[in-house]
Design a protein that fits this description.
Length: 158
């Protein structure tokens, strides 16, 4: 390596190294996320994804796929209940069991009967249940709505 390049690289590398240390020292430290908080975030993302896909499948009359996503919602609710997940002092398992499970059951019955109007009513109950749970946990700024489009690279027609 020519001496001119090495004379430039060593000081430049040293400056870069020191500046990265200084910037890391000045940046605010993030608190590590606890296990329950991580599980709540993950569960809420999955609730939203599965309920959205449930709606698209039911709207399309793809009852097998709708049943699959309804079952996924049941499992998420069971996990919250069984694992006694709390968040900010609220028992999410108990809340979801009381508020959300009846709405999921209603959609399950509609899927079994393959009645689109009953499915829509049941799905509206899920949306209301989600928003009621957000209200009960003082997160009413999170407002779930009925999906208006398909953002997934997935076909929902039977």
């Amino acid at each position: 390596m020519p001496k001119q390049v090495s004379r430039f690289l060593l000081p430049a590398s040293l400056i870069f190294f020191i500046s990265s240390i200084v910037s890391n020292c000045n940046s605010p430290k993030q608190q590590p996320i606890d296990d329950d908080e991580y599980r709540v975030q993950r569960t809420m993302v999955l609730y939203q994804r599965y309920s959205h896909k449930l709606y698209l499948a039911g709207k399309a009359g793809n009852w097998g796929l709708a049943e699959f996503y309804e079952h996924e919602l049941e499992e998420l609710t069971a996990d919250l209940t069984q694992d006694k997940i709390t968040y900010e002092g609220k028992d999410l398992g108990a809340l979801s069991n009381v508020i959300l499970r009846p709405a999921i059951d209603s959609v399950g019955k509609a899927i079994q009967s393959q009645e689109i109007e009953q499915f829509r009513k049941g799905y509206n109950l899920i949306i209301k249940a989600c928003n009621n749970c957000h209200l009960a946990t003082e997160h009413d700024f999170i407002n779930i709505t009925i999906p208006s489009n398909n953002p997934y690279n997935q076909q929902f027609q039977p």
